[in-house]
Write a structure and sequence with these properties.
The chain is an alpha+beta fold. It has a four-stranded mixed β-sheet, with helices on both faces.
């Protein structure tokens, strides 16, 4: 099965399931579905940052400060967060990611409910070659210094700003 063949739950503006479609159809038709974003930090507290492969269906060769992806049909956000984090980091036995908040992302031609998590990964990472072209761990200051220098995935960049507001106590329009 290719990523385009994955079956996803299609959801409405209240995150209620209204149908199912393949990932390819959801992407091409702009159908609202569910995604998870996991902020992964190493033992030193540095953030995992990577460049997506050129073969990714959405935002190829863009940089991202989150691991994550789509939530499969019938899968919970929590299940997807652990699965996606372990897959993209190339580890097993990761602690269950901690849920932080959820929000509706709406960008040009894309819409998905986004649940944001955090996890500490103290294991050596071996990122999934099909997903990650290159990676590094950056301090918060190093990441801030690179925000204007690279092409970032737009949903990840929006999530990053919402996470900063959430941690500062602003909530960023997030729901818990």
């Amino acid at each position: 099965m290719t990523p385009a063949d994955e079956i996803l739950d299609i959801v409405d503006e209240n995150d209620e399931v209204v149908g199912q479609a393949t990932r390819g159809e959801a992407t091409s038709r702009g159908l609202r579905h569910r995604c998870v974003f996991i902020e992964a930090r190493d033992a030193a507290g540095r953030l995992f940052v990577h460049r997506r492969t050129a073969t990714k269906m959405v935002f190829p060769s863009h940089y991202d400060m989150f691991v994550g992806g789509v939530v499969g049909a019938g899968e919970s956000y929590d299940e997807a967060a652990l699965r996606e984090a372990e897959e993209e980091l190339g580890v097993s036995g990761l602690p269950r990611p901690t849920p932080l908040f959820k929000y509706l992302y709406e960008g040009p031609g894309h819409s998905w409910w986004s649940y944001v998590y955090e996890v500490r990964c103290e294991l050596p990472v071996r990122p999934q070659a099909e997903e990650v072209d290159r990676h590094t761990f950056l301090t918060d200051a190093e990441l801030e210094g690179q925000l204007g220098d690279r092409t970032w995935v737009p949903d990840g960049l929006e999530t990053y700003h919402r996470l900063r507001e959430f941690r500062a106590g602003g909530g960023a329009g997030a729901t818990r």
